[in-house]
Amino acid sequence: MSDPGPSGRFGRFGGRYVPESLITACEELEEAFRDAWDDPAFRAALSQTLELYAGRPTPVTPALRLSADLGVTLLLKREDLTHTGSHKINNVLGQALLARRMGKTRLLAETGAGQHGVATATAGALLGLGVTVFMGERDMERQQLNVFRMRLLGAEVVGVSSGSRTLKDACSEALRHWVAAADDAHYCIGSVMGPHPYPWMVREFQRVVGEEARGQCASLLPRAVPDVVVACVGGGSNAAGTFAGFVDTPARLVGVEPAGGAAVAGGEPGVLHGFHSYVLQDEDGQIQEAHSISAGLDYPGVGPEHAHLADTGRATYVSVTDDEAVAAVARLARTEGILPALESAHALAWVLKAAGTPDLPAGSTVLVTLSGRGDKDADQLARLI
Ligand SMILES: *Cc1c(COP(=O)(O)O)cnc(C)c1O
């Protein structure tokens, strides 16, 4: 998981499939990011913001009662404890500081569940940047609290009425808007997707999750590195950040997709939103809708580096159903007093299924990244549990 170079390729995946008018904006962004990432002053400013504002480092919590039930040692990387309640803030603060360094005055963002929109609205308020968030109208109905939060934070929320009126359509609309606004606006993408340099840049901003966890595991586990490292995969940013901390260890890396949006397991290579990766599509190459209970995983593609990690076999991708994820929320809440986001519950649900099987034999040590907290899902869960 290194620098993909100017082509932005991870094996056969990635690249930069955008209209001519956005090539320059992507090139400028790549240059600015390379420059910033090599600059100790930028790194220090980001670290300080993550620490003093976002609440890093987040702990790794041993899940003691659940471990005893399952016969494995389960550790949880607690991104739910960050400011705004998910790992999204790590990437957003990085991109917002970069946008300011580039002289941009506005941030554009797409959002599905609203978590990335809330994080971007938060960073905009912190740094005095204007924020416009594109959100599918269907998601606006499903996630009214986050729409209200974004507006309260001073962001403009633009409803998108095309297509399925969800995340995929919000991404398309944000890209379209960026074409006209690139002079003063930075497009703050919320996952390891989009044209180069985004998949690489977002992974680098999320790397802090894996690097912290690596050090924390070393002091908690007799053999320093867990046997298995697990994270949920929508676009794949919390998983990419987590995996980056362990890719050079013997740990098995497992990405968990929702059964209704399993782009690695069920997709075909194709181009979506400016990058080449596994994408859910029909026989004619038309993009198919993803159908997941968790809006944050409801995306028909997957970040190109995950497609490559799957191809090379370095990481394994599995899927769990909506019901399994809901059951995992309740199980963690009752055994550990932690209410995870429905997205994060997918990672946990795989552990619940695999514990004691050859996939995760008794006595194994396993780290799960808890990408976010579950408060946002309370309404939805109330109708299900
Ligand atoms: C957005 C989100 C995800 C999915 O995004 P990735 O880029 O795959 O990490 C997962 N968990 C939470 C809590 C989210 O908000």
TrEMBL record:
Its cofactor is pyridoxal 5'-phosphate. GO terms for cellular component: cytoplasm. One of its GO terms (molecular function) is tryptophan synthase activity. It catalyses: (1S,2R)-1-C-(indol-3-yl)glycerol 3-phosphate + L-serine = D-glyceraldehyde 3-phosphate + L-tryptophan + H2O. Gene3D superfamilies: 3.40.50.1100. Residues 54-372 form the Tryptophan synthase beta chain-like PALP domain. The modification N6-(pyridoxal phosphate)lysine is found at residue 88. CDD domains: Trp-synth_B. It is an enzyme of class 4 (lyase). Its EC number is 4.2.1.20. Keywords: Amino-acid biosynthesis, Aromatic amino acid biosynthesis, Lyase, Pyridoxal phosphate, Tryptophan biosynthesis. PROSITE patterns: TRP_SYNTHASE_BETA. Pathway: Amino-acid biosynthesis; L-tryptophan biosynthesis; L-tryptophan from chorismate: step 5/5. Transmembrane segments: none annotated. The beta subunit is responsible for the synthesis of L-tryptophan from indole and L-serine. Belongs to the TrpB family. Tetramer of two alpha and two beta chains. This is Tryptophan synthase beta chain. The gene is trpB.
